[in-house]
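Suppose you are handed only these lines of text.
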Amino acid sequence: MKTLEKILQKVIEKNPGEKEFHQAVEEVLSSLEPVIKKHPEFLEEGIIDRLVEPERQIIFRVPWVDDNGEPQLNRGFRVQFNSAIGPYKGGLRFHPSVYLGIIKFLGFEQIFKNSLTGLPIGGGKGGSDFDPKGKSNGEIMKFCQSFMTELYRHIGKDIDIPAGDIGVGSREIGYLYGQYKRIKNSFDAGVLTGKGLTYGGSFARKEATGYGLIYFVKEMLEANNQTLKNKTIVISGSGNVAIYACEKAQQYDAKVVAMSDSKGYIYDKNGIKLDTIKQIKEVERKRISEYIKYHTEAKYHECQKDIWSIKCDIALPCATQNDIDINQAQVLIKNGVIAIGEGANMPCTNEAIKFFLENNILLAPAKAANAGGVATSALEMSQDSMRICWTFEEVDNKLHEIMKSIFKAADKAAKEYGMPGNYVAGANIAGFLKVANAMRAQGIV
Ligand code: NDP
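From them, the structure of the protein bound to NDP can be written out as follows.
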């Protein structure tokens, strides 16, 4: 007899060495037992077998020439995971750690996240092992142009719509879009999201993932008789998600005392001065250690992971996957943490998630809590199609409503399936049901 356990074993055998992908599949399947009890047809009809197998995986060569005239080579990826509810949609990650297993974990997560937004977008993800650190602007442009010279044939505004992720911000999206437009000789703005405001971008897209995270955490706290006001918050990362999570948290009168980058973290007991972080990270593209030059009362520590030893009420991992393992989870709980909001994708190991839930810590899972970015990307696509431009307030209000409805969906599914307060299971189940039903309706394809 087919079981979820057997499906997981098959995923591990068929995708050897892709440990992040195995982890992501295990995390989702571990929530589906009660769903299968109620709806055995999802298992019997092979819906789950197909769900864990990408529809298409593209791997390509990305040659480019550096500033010294030397030829360089990277590997590019695009995994088009599931198009049951809409065209593939998901970001591009440029980081030396990227390999197929990372892109597949991200693409798999994206299926459920996109489903939760309530908008018609399927799941995909892409990227490259290219390291943008230390590269000149010209090198970044040449790399992006070469990457798009292959990718363009696989994407389209009704086919697959990439966006940013780690190492891919508005500068990179601009270069990618410029090359796409040149090859296609067509202003198809809807083919990429996260574009600049002067050429088809949306207001509030830059802020959306971080703001959305805080909107979700706010809903979760309020449903449990808590608020953000005067809470002490620690945020890992100082990139796009971390910066705008900090901004919105501060607007709700919470106090963010620490942020990090891949080298280390800063602790400012008086509260992080976000303007300084933005100047260092968004304008100068320097290390976070620079912060203490401007604020001498703050402290810098070399080890990024030790950020989780700081006493806080709310922890927001917004850097990368597996940032919080069981050891860090134990320290956070010992120090009195009440809530975790996952801004990054899969920032907690499965063991850490289990431990948080067993200890009744409120956990806002990434699929739901960081869905504001892709939701606003879908709003950008709508504006591009309609050739209109909503104001910042209009987009932000829509984002806020979407995050509230995602919280409601996760909360409702958790209650319906007998796990009230378990938003991890609730988000997995709510995201899964919509996609699984759409797959059933479309037959064996
Ligand atoms: P950025 O590239 O803007 O920032 C990433 C931040 O994380 C940087 O501070 C970076 O430090 C740090 N970081 C990256 N890798 C590591 C590592 N291995 N160890 C420790 N720190 C690391 O990326 P985003 O803010 O866009 O993305 C952050 C997370 O949020 C990712 O998990 C991404 O998948 C997820 N996400 C992003 C969305 C978006 O809209 N951008 C949407 C939904 C999820 P350094 O500068 O030193 O490299």
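What can we learn from it? The pocket of NDP is lined by residues 164-167, 209, 237-242, 261-263, 304, 318-320, 343-345, 370, 373 (CB under 6 Å). The radius of gyration is 21 Å.
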